[in-house]
Design brief:
Order of helices and strands: EEHEHEHEEEHHEEEHEEHEEEHEEHEEHH
Structural class: alpha/beta
Radius of gyration: 21 Å
Pfam family, one: Epimerase
Number of strands: 19
CATH class: Alpha Beta
Oligomer: single chain
GO molecular function: UDP-glucose 4-epimerase activity
Protein name: UDP-glucose 4-epimerase
């Protein structure tokens, strides 16, 4: 890490102390100071739900988000969800703070890390940040095709600088927000994809009672966004191989939908949404006239693309499971990838129809040409997460549609 970085103020824009510095942490009774999980991009769709689940699970949380694609009000709603959870509990709500900075602002991040660093008598640096969950990335497939340098600058250059800084502060438990896009055209073969379909070193595995060899690399990445996630994983795999003190889990998301059952937070991106359900909700509310269905000639039963749609609360819980596994030092190796999906695929047509049924509102749709960078089918094999993380999904497509309707009802204004 270059010593030319200079520090500037990185004070939290809001603080809601629930675990005073004089108390022992709820989770970590063997230390005197509270310990924290740092969440970058923690006001975004997946980040906000994960921050809320972390608080409900007893973790103190530091959120970094410059609100480039999120809303400041989400922080207050995360706090409200946590307060509601602890309202009838003898346990105090954990501490949560928001830092309104970019994770790429190294001087500001350095200042933040300084605030949570202590020194031993021998001069060793110790951080009270015991883990990082990294969501802060650009993620629109179509935009990445039009603006690849923007994606490489944020998702790759930013990641390298951030990892270098964490290494300097000895913060080496890292949960990476990856994506099923790393599977490229392998996902389009009509079969569920397993982690060995994209590996960063030659890997032996069992398949149908026989031993198979997965060659290093991936096949047919269709867009720069997917490449940034593959490159990010490769960087992390190389880092872990070079330094065994790192513990890194890359979580490959499939298609998050739904929202917290309280309706307080949901998917509410700035600008034009690129994911399916935000567009569906805009059609339902009359903001959009119709849902454009990209392609009706895919090799699927109804011709529309099939995806593995996972409720965002289940996805958030997957991060808690990953963090617990990282803290327990029980990974098979210090870099490991995990699919987070349901293992069941639904077509765009099925999702739109389910939303119509649950909401009682029409979702007008029109078939248009396929969208650049898309594949026809992408469904997870999620056995590794079930076995090694002790995690599996609990919520259904109907649950997700119901929760979205609740979110819309509570946020009419």
């Amino acid at each position: 890490m270059s010593s030319t970085y200079t520090s500037r103020a990185a004070s939290p824009s809001a603080s809601y102390p629930g675990t005073p510095a004089t108390e022992r942490s709820v989770l970590f009774d063997n230390v005197d100071l509270p310990q924290y999980i740092l969440v970058t991009g923690g006001l975004g769709f997946i980040g906000s739900h994960t921050a809320a689940e972390l608080l409900k699970s007893g973790y103190n949380v530091l959120i970094v988000d410059n609100c480039m694609n999120s809303h400041r009000r989400v922080f207050d709603r995360i706090v409200q969800i946590a307060d509601n959870h602890y309202a009838d509990s003898p346990q105090k709500r954990p501490d949560v703070k928001l830092f309104d900075i970019s994770y790429q602002d190294i001087p500001a991040m350095q200042n933040l890390l300084d605030q949570y660093t202590s020194w031993s008598l021998s001069g060793d640096r110790q951080s009270s940040i015991i883990g990082v969950i990294h969501f802060a990335a650009l993620k629109a497939v179509e935009e990445s095709i039009r603006m690849p340098l923007k994606y490489y600058r944020n998702n790759i250059n930013g990641l390298i600088d951030f990892l270098s800084l964490l290494d300097e502060y000895n913060v080496k438990k890292f949960i990476f927000s990856s994506s099923a896009t790393v599977y490229g055209t392998v996902a389009d073969r009509g079969l569920p994809v397993r982690e060995e379909s994209c590996v960063h070193k030659p890997t032996l595995y069992q398949d149908k009672d026989s031993e198979q060899l997965a060659e290093q690399g991936c096949t047919g990445l269709t867009n720069p966004y997917g490449r940034t996630k593959f490159f990010g994983e490769a960087i992390l795999a190389d880092l872990a191989a070079s330094d065994p003190s790192w513990t890194i889990l890359a979580l490959r998301y499939f298609n998050p939908i739904g929202c917290d059952e309280s309706g307080l937070i949901g998917e509410d991106p700035k600008g034009v949404p690129s994911n399916l359900l935000p567009v569906v909700t805009k059609v339902m509310t009359g903001e959009y006239a119709e849902l454009k269905v990209f392609g009706d000639d895919w090799n699927t039963p109804d011709g529309t693309a099939i995806r593995d749609f996972i409720h965002v609360t289940d996805l958030a819980r997957g991060h808690i499971a990953a963090l617990s596994t990282a803290q327990g030092e029980c990974l098979k190796e210090n870099f490991r990838t995990f699919n987070l999906g349901t293992g069941t695929g639904y077509s765009v047509e099925q999702v739109a129809s389910t939303m119509e049924t649950v909401s009682g509102r029409p979702v007008n749709r029109r078939k248009v040409e396929r969208r650049a960078g898309d594949v026809g089918t992408c469904v997870a094999v999620a056995d590794r997460a079930r076995v090694e993380l002790g995690w599996e999904t609990q919520k259904s497509l109907n649950d997700a549609c119901r929760d979205i309707c609740n979110f819309l009802e509570l946020n009419k204004s």
